[in-house]
Specification:
- This protein has about 525 residues and is of the alpha/beta class.
- It has a domain of about 250 residues: 3-Layer(bba) Sandwich (FAD/NAD(P)-binding domain), CATH 3.50.50.
- The strands form three sheets. Strands 1, 2, 5, 6, 7, 8 and 16 form a seven-stranded mixed beta sheet that branches.
- Strand 1, helix 1 and strand 2 form a beta-alpha-beta unit.
Amino acid sequence: MSAEPFDVCVIGSGPAGGVLSKELAERGAKVALVEAGRQMSPEDFHFHSWPYDFPKRHKPPEAFYPPEVKSAIRYEDCDDIAVDRIRAVGGRSIHWNAACFRFAQRDFRERSMEGVEEDWPISYQELAPYYSHVERMIGVCGSRENLDILPDGEFLPPIKFRCSEEIVKRACGKMGIPMIPTRKAVLTVPYDGRPPCHYCGHCMEGCDAGAIFTVPNSMLPKAQRTGNFTLLPNRVAREILTDSEGRARAVSVIDTTTRREEEIRARVFAVACATIESARLLLNSRSPRFPNGLANSSGLVGRYLTGHITGGVAGYLDELAGSKPVNNDGATDHSYIPRFNANDKKRGFAGGYQYQVQFSSSMFPHQAQMLRGFGKSFKERVRYLQPGFFMMGGFGKALARRENYATVDPSHPDAYGIPISVVHFRFSENDLALWRDMTEKAREILHAAKAELITVDSGPSGFASHETGTARMGNDPRSSVLNAHCQAHDVKNLFVVDGSCFTTFPEKNPTLTIMALAVRAAEYMAGEVKKGNL
């Protein structure tokens, strides 16, 4: 057991937990940050190595995803989805594409605007100052476009388009579809002591230069400089323990190196383990007072699981095919096609979709497996098409529905004796209608850009590491787990600050909103402490 209780114990060191810890430490709180994974070293990253440099010709994933994590989940009655459950200090911030898009005003009002799901208990206007705070804190490149569906923010200079993106932008313009510089937590100029991107194209594998925002390169050093911060890696949270009054008093953790169990005490607890793991921790925290799991009087912990429905389309632009090869690595995607169907009354489904383009490696010959033939003529055709490669990744809204959920299986413990997660998820007819439209429109865009050998994913998939829900916020304790400040209705000194808290989820990436909500929650916690309410 920890000697003196911390003011706040944050569980999970990804974007939510990292930002929350830094904000609280700077406000004077004594913060413990608990992380199941270990601190990464330079040897764990292989940024600029070729596939043939690795055993079995692929990069070893064990550094971020140890085998015991992969076996600690089961999918039952599921469509083609997968959940990303990384274990490393910094969470998924250590290898991500860094896309940062503000939710629009309408994205918080799905019931009012579309007649589906529920409205959030907060508005865009309430969250906007926290969006700005995060953008200035992490460094987000982009351009001001004055689009209602994609609010502008505090931007560094945008990334320039490549030739392929200019060609597709021209086609989109003729179709009345906007294609704009993307918005990413990637530096285009020196900022906050970090260097700008050198366009190596390895963004999603990890950034050795520090041009991409990560918790370890941006949040933890600032938290440590306060003298109020303690990092506790290699500790898997087993359950949150409560006192006789039903308040959280400690988190029981298992040291992954010694296998010893210990308790970390605090006055306030913040769960930031990511959607599935946060629900798992709450559901495993059972007691006579909370027989169905902590903060679960509504029975909704684990419910309303959702995430993006995804599909990809690729083709080869005639205008570039056969041209002399050039370095197209860049910072993965440089451009972005925001939702453009919001005002289409004939679309036949609720919600919308976005396209992030050119984030697949241009070095890989994706066309080779689809071309007929062999020998010299086959190789010549592969090389001819390669300079024209263009891909579009579609990310669409999937409705948050009660029947999609995550639970735990006490009869199947993981390597540390903790019941595993079990996920149940099916796309709705609305989701599938949206996917069909998203796929067809991408095909139309590539045809308009004069692309050939267009390939389309055979069916929908999810969630692209964008899962949300399972502990949603709301004003009514009977239909939500948290209040508008991510505070549990049932347990006043317990907060859940990752994507679990989302009431609904639009087509945009979740991370910027997760971090903005974490800053807002930190401000609220500090205020409640001063008032004597925590």
